[in-house]
Design brief:
InterPro entries: Acyl_CoA_acyltransferase, GNAT_dom. It comes from Hyphomonas adhaerens MHS-3. Residues 23-179 form the N-acetyltransferase domain. With 208 residues, this protein is of the alpha+beta class. It has one domain: Gcn5-related N-acetyltransferase (GNAT) (Aminopeptidase, 3-Layer(aba) Sandwich), CATH 3.40.630. The chain has helices at 5-8, 19-22, 31-48, 53-56, 104-118, 133-139, 178-181, 193-197, 204-207; strands at 23-27, 65-71, 74-83, 88-95, 123-129, 142-144, 151-153, 156-164. Strands 1, 2, 3, 4, 5, 6, 7 and 8 form an 8-stranded mixed β-sheet that branches. Strand 4, helix 5 (104-118) and strand 5 form a beta-alpha-beta unit. The longest helix has 18 residues, at 31-48.
């Protein structure tokens, strides 16, 4: 499996080699995978933290990019990214209880940073539970946003952080190959089904 070299630069500490043999992470690309992400979030936020349904499923789940973390073939973690003009927003990080404190989180974040950087973003906004600032500040490169105080929702105190995204040497410009741009999210280096459809384009037989 190709490792997210650029994405790992966003982390405070490297991911051990053996971790990649156990864990993998990727963007959600099917309704089945979206249900996996929703199930993990329900277990963590609704069950453990008693978050109301309408606050957890907030109307943004069809507007962003979701990631899944797998321990072998089993989905064990998720997060969501939403996109704005000059920043991306990191949201809804959730790990099943047995995965907390393990290395899988770093795999999830590294793959997320790789995709965000490939899209050309250099910074992200995070809204984190205030009590978790020490954890996140040791996990990836970030800072508390100056001049921004705490705020509350779903019965928890939150703080805003700016997350630094490493620069990707192969960030995708608008002028990229059209077949690259229409490939599945995060799989821009692998020919997709629409690449093959080009063989049906008018004039291909004559060109051959």
């Amino acid at each position: 499996m190709k490792r997210p070299v650029v994405g790992m630069e966003g982390l405070r500490r490297p991911v051990p080699d053996e971790t990649w043999d156990r864990y993998s992470a990727r963007p959600v690309r099917s309704l089945d995978e979206l249900q996996m992400a929703a199930a993990i979030r329900a277990a963590v936020f609704m069950s453990e933290q008693a978050c109301p349904y309408e606050e957890e499923y907030d109307g943004n789940d069809l507007c962003g990019t979701h990631f899944l973390l797998f321990d072998g073939a089993e989905p064990v973690g998720t997060l969501r990214v939403r996109w704005f003009a000059d920043f991306a927003k990191l949201e809804r990080i959730a790990l099943l209880p047995r995965e907390r404190g393990r290395m899988g989180l770093r795999v999830l974040l590294a793959e997320m940073f790789e995709l965000v950087a490939r899209k050309g973003y250099r910074r992200m906004l995070g809204q984190i539970q205030a009590r978790l600032w020490p954890v996140w500040s040791r996990t990836f490169k970030c800072r508390l946003l100056p001049g921004r105080g705490p705020f509350w929702f779903s019965d928890y105190e939150y703080r805003e952080i700016e997350i630094l995204v490493p620069e990707h040497p192969d960030a995708l410009p608008m002028e990229a190959d059209p077949y690259v741009i229409i490939r599945p999210e995060g799989a821009w280096d692998t020919p997709g089904v629409l690449d093959a459809s080009a063989d049906r384009a008018p004039g291909q037989d004559e060109a051959a």
